[in-house]
Amino acid sequence: MRWVFLDTGLEQFELSIPGSPNTCVAILVISNYTHKLLGSEITKAEPMRSLRKNAFTSGRYAAHLAQNELGLEPSEIPALGRRPIWPVGQVGAITHSTKYAAAIVSEDLFSVGLDVERLGRIKEKLYHKLFTAAELDAINQMAGSEMESVIFSAKESIFKAIYSIVQRYVNFQEVELVLKPENSSFSVNYIGKNMASLQNLETIGYWSVFKDHVLTVVEIR
Asked: pLDDT digits over 56-105, tens only?
């Protein structure tokens, strides 16, 4: 796994992920990167208000940085709705918070996902909608470690990775994480209905915490 950090200090987001040499994550602080857009991305960004434009342009620029790191020609990433459409031979995902944007691009994985979230956003009143009983046990056992934010972010990463496979909305209760705090990784059990297409695939993810944010990355092989 390769990494690109456009801004000083973001190296602390880096995860120790074995293998996947043709996969790259790029992270940057959100700003207006309209001048870095390509093709239809420029037209897409033109009518956006400033905050949305900053998030959109930062995410697309992060994707271009990841493509470049892999030796690929940076290319426009159009959207179907708000879902990025990746060039043939590439899979990827884009995420942003109010502070950071990140993208992952891979040539050697079946699918990928990533998410960046501000810590402390997930309130306890939402737990029953977001987490399974086993995940709630893990949150209680690791109180004070922001596991609720980690699990929420991980599920967001998973949803991005599996959407192209299942082609439908997946409920938070349809996936269950098995956390491995000793190396900040997790595996995934697909417990929802009609998810047979995922059963023979290996899904593994990782997380890191830097200051007030968590980054999660998911690989599907």
From this structure: 999 999 999 999 999 999 999 999 888 999 999 999 999 999 999 999 99
- Could you read off the pLDDT of 101-112 as tens digits, one per residue? 999 999 999 999
Cβ–Cβ < 8 Å for 60, 20: no
Q: Where are the extended beta strands (E) located within the chain?
A: 2-5, 23-29, 79-80, 83-84, 91-96, 100-106, 111-118, 175-180, 185-190, 203-210, 213-220
**Apex CA 8: angle with CA 144 and CA 206, to 5°?**
45
The CA-CA-CA angle for residues 32, 97, 36, to 5°, reads 25
Please, what sign has the CA dihedral across residues 167, 170, 176, 178? Answer: positive
How far is 129 from 166, CA to CA, in rounded Å?
21
Query: Collapsing DSSP states into helix, strand and coil, what is residue 32?
Result: coil
| pTM, full prediction | 0.96
Of 105, 97, 83, nearest in space to 25 by CA: 105
Beta bridge partners of 27: 5, 102
Among candidate residues 94, 177, 166, 96, the one with its CA nearest the CA of residue 131: 177
10 Å Cβ neighbour count for 3?
Answer: 16
